[in-house]
Write a structure and sequence with these properties.
0% strand, rod-shaped
């Protein structure tokens, strides 16, 4: 039972890490696009 809970907690942490990475990448790309359009 304990191993199942630990595995589930690790899966949740991995999901949060992936979501955070995706959000940061989206902000970087969006910022790059905005700066590019402002400078042209």
């Amino acid at each position: 039972m304990k191993e199942h809970l630990v595995t589930k907690a690790c899966d949740v942490d991995a999901g949060i890490s992936v979501q955070l990475r995706d959000d940061i990448l989206l902000m970087l790309v969006a910022g790059h696009e905005m700066i590019g359009s402002v400078l042209t």
